[in-house]
Amino acid sequence: MKLRENNHVVGYVFTSPFILGFLIFTLFPIISSLYYSFTEYNLLEAPRWIGLQNYEKLFMEDDKIWKSFQVTFTYVFASVPLRLAFALFVAMLLNTAIRGVGAYRSAYYLPSLIGGSVAVSIMWSQIFGDKGLLNSALGLIGIKTTANWIGLPETALWTLIALSVWQFGSSMLIFLAGLKNIPASYYEAANVDGAGRMRRFFSITLPLLSPIILFNLIMQTISAFMTFTPAYIISRGEGGPLDNTLLYSLYLYRRAFQFMEMGYASAMAWVMLIIIGIITLIIFKTSTLWVHYEAKGEK
Amino acid sequence: MRLAGKQKSILYHIIVGGLALCMIYPILWLAASSLKPNDEIFSTAYSLIPSRLEFANYASGWKGFAGTTFATFFQNSFYIVVISTIGAVASSALVAYGFARIPFFGKSFWFGCVMMTLMLPHDVTIIPQYVMFAKLGWLSSFKPIIVPSFFAAPFFIFLMMQFIRTIPGELDEAAKMDGCSKYGIFFKIVLPLIVPALVTSAIFSFYWRWDDFINPLLYLNKPELYPVSLALKLFLDGESLNNWGGMFAMATLSLLPIVIVFFIFQKFIVEGISTSGLKG
Predict the structure, then answer these.
(1) pLDDT tens digits, residue range A171-218?
(2) Closest CA to A151 of A242, A282, A18
(3) Residue B100 to residue A292: CA distance in whole angstroms
(4) Pick from B125, B186, B262: which is nearest to A33 by CB?
(5) Which of A94, A171, A262 sits opposite B127 (nearest CB)?
(6) Nearest alpha-carbon partner for B255 in A231, A250, A122, A160
(7) Residue B117, helix vs strand vs coil
(8) Residue A121 CB partners (closer than 8 Å, separation 6+)
(9) How many angstroms separate the CA atoms of A117 and A160, rounded?
(10) Which of A70, A275, B3, B127 is least crowded, fewest Cβ atoms below 10 Å from its Cβ?
(11) Closest CA to A114 of B173, B254, B113
(12) Mean pLDDT to the nearest integer, B247-276
């Protein structure tokens, strides 16, 4: 009996760094954020309660926020599927015992590793600039253009999407680990039955990988919604041209820390949280249709 | 049949290798541009080979801004990274052991909080945290960046728990028989056995801290305090706008520690991502 009591105390001693941190740096901020979202707060004066006004303004008056939604959704729904598709495709290519495959794995993974850095965002803005690597390479194959891909409203966002897709390496490694867990005997049996390449992919690979795809899909979607650094660096903190790279996180940052509208920005954060919650829920709910659990193997 | 196999393998290397080259080409281009004379960076942008090696770019970039050199920026980065990595790894190891091995009241609730924190978008907490640190008078110091890392990171807790679960429980039992307390078991038995997980966590912590941009952007407003990530941004501002060579040189230099650590610890990193199934 004494020992059991001990366990409770010891358990809390060990986990106290997390519990304290959670209360101070997560729970308390979440509650404060909800409170601020109903106030007008510029940091200098005390927050002033204004009820639902921030939310009304957000949905009724703020044109920029709709632009920002549109930009963010385009970014998320283009970059995440493309990224995962590339990741799976390359993981399948690399799932062999051919010599040198380890070096390839590193080469494909390296961009994800350095991808979040300012250096890469700067590099990207030079690659797609009017005299950058892309135009220079296009010139070599006879396409003369001086387009500034970063500066053109139609293409600016797509350069950010390309940057995100370029960083498919970490998803690729997770897929690769998943592919290695599929017993070779499944494929052998399918071969005996005369199943072709496509059939094997859709009947064996995809269903067995589906729990990993689900996990990747959710984590990547959340982090795509939070993308900030490349949009900030490439558009010099403005979200231009014509607000076409004004990702939601960047707009929130500007409202909060450039215009000092902490209340309004908190309301924005809550709207974002709810949207992400709904999307995650939809992914989870619909996953019962395509995620295959039984054959996950014993772990 | 044999020849067909060989042809297949050549074809494989052409496709997969070609694609891999495209993947790393931009990085090579960045490094190559840092050694080109200023006017050449954009006139022969497609080429990786400078007409002459221009090391002066490194000198002009290193000078930094308004008297603060990159020596200071690198020093700040290393300071932040080392302290917060030690904090994050040590605290997460304690917590991971608590969750993995000790049955206590409310454990599943608190573990639920770990998973929730893992998925919670940063945007929701960023404003109130800023307000909190402002009230504490911590702005324009490293404290808002370093202190929270001493309160365990969900990703590392998760990763270390995966490792602790692979340690047989009989080992704990045997130690208990010998009169070892839970604290003793943790320090003498579990900790030495999870060194690979500690190393993996330290590497990831290093990467995220090194690349972190938003926190320094929010909390540090004096160039003397800037880490490398934030300092690079200054090349894009105002007067420094035309020092392309210097910018490329410092950008390249800022990636160097990441790439070096990657090549040293490749195996840990790959396994860390694969086993935890989380983003890298």
Answers:
(1) 898 898 888 888 888 888 888 888 888 888 888 888 888 888 998 899
(2) A242
(3) 28
(4) B125
(5) A262
(6) A122
(7) helix
(8) A163, A229, A230, A232, A233, A234
(9) 14
(10) B3
(11) B254
(12) 83
User: What 8-state DSSP symbol labels residue B65?
Assistant: B
Contact A114 B213 (CB under 8 A): no
Cα angle A249-A252-A258, degrees, rounded to a multiple of 5: 125
Query: How many other CB atoms are found less than 10 A from the CB of residue B81?
Result: 22
| Out of A11, A118, A270, closest to residue B102 by CB | A11
Percent of chain B with pLDDT over 70: 92
Are B105 and A8 contacting, i.e. CB atoms less than 8 angstroms apart? yes
Position A120, amino acid: V
Q: Based on the number of CB atoms within 10 Å of its own CB, is B56 exposed (0-12), middle (13-18) or buried (19 or more)?
A: middle
- C-alpha to C-alpha distance for B197 and B271, rounded to whole angstroms: 10
- From A163-172, B60-69, B83-92, B111-120, the region with the lowest mean pLDDT: B60-69
B244 min Cα distance to partner chain A (Å): 10
CB proximity A94 to B under 8 Å: yes
Distance CA A48, CA A44 (A): 11
Q: A202 vs chain B: nearest CA distance in angstroms?
A: 23
Range in A172-181, B14-23, B260-269 the model is least confident about: B260-269
> Could A25 and B129 be called an inter-chain contact, meaning their C-beta atoms sit closer than 8 Å?
yes
| A127 neighbors B38 (Cβ within 8 angstroms) | no
This model of the complex carries an ipTM of 0.87
**Cβ <8 Å between B45 and A174:** no
| CA-based nearest distance B232→chain A, Å | 7
Closest C-alpha to B274, from A97, A80, A172, A299: A172
How many CB atoms are located within 10 Å of the residue A48 CB?
A: 11
DSSP-derived secondary structure letter, A47:
P
Give the E-state strand segments of chain B in sequence order. none
Condensed to tens digits (0 to 9), the pLDDT of residues A264-287 reads 999 999 999 999 999 999 998 998
pLDDT of B243 above 90: no
Distance from CA of B106 to the nearest CA of A (A): 9
Q: How big is the A-B interface in CB pairs under 8 Å?
A: 275
